[in-house]
Write a structure and sequence with these properties.
The structure is a single chain. The protein is α/β, with parallel strands linked by helices. It has one domain: Aldolase class I (TIM Barrel, Alpha-Beta Barrel). Helix content is about 40%, strand content about 15%. The structure holds 2-phosphoglycolic acid (PGA). 2-phosphoglycolic acid (PGA) binds next to strand 8.
Length: about 250
Amino acid sequence: MKKREVHIVGNWKMHQTLVEISHFFIEMSKMKMELKCKAWIAPQSIHIPILKEIAFTTGSIQIGAQNCCEHESGAYTGEVSPLALADIGVEFVIIGHSERRSIYGEKNEVLNKKVLLALKHGLKVIYCVGETLAEREAEQTFNVIENQLSIGLRNVTPESAHLLMIAYEPVWAIGTGKTATAEQAEEVHAHIRTKLKLNAEQTIILYGGSVKPDNIDSLLRQENIDGALVGGASLKAQDFRALCSSASTAMM
Ligand code: PGA
């Protein structure tokens, strides 16, 4: 029995066509399953309204975004404002995913602006942290993560702290098939919890990085792992459902 509600969050990245999306939900609806965990999906932004509509009819899945702009409105061609996300009823946004950090050069300072603005608009924020392989090998894991937390979460207020979630995603485990062992992940999760200044005991801390139906159970058995942020294995209804089923069992 977990202390905190278990969340399975699918990060669809830049995948899924309309046909694949409809196939995913048809498969999901065939598998009649009572969800005891929270099941969330972050599709490409353009698909959010479509998924919201389908999710509304199927009931149990909440829809969010993979990123947002650090500005509320203005001349920022190609960006998506957290205000616009809140406006269309988006529930959550992922901020600081390692692909945003490494491919798009997003630094902790700009991520902090995104976090504060998204919280201001009442969005739940999944703030991602994690070390590269080189940083782990240089025994810098805790330093890197402390830095990501202290700058990225600067000025978060006690009033909005309940909207904040953390995802620990070791960069070397994302999309590589290499998962941190449950013990390695738990060590970092426990450390993150000690470093959170607000709402530490209640904050949901997800693990991400090659989570699959066959490794989720051992991760969820860890005291400080409250769910998973899942890329590849969230794209197939069967796998996503299996992850949700494990998470539902962990809730009982
Ligand atoms: P993965 O991706 O599950 O495919 O490793 C996780 C993520 O990038 O959030």
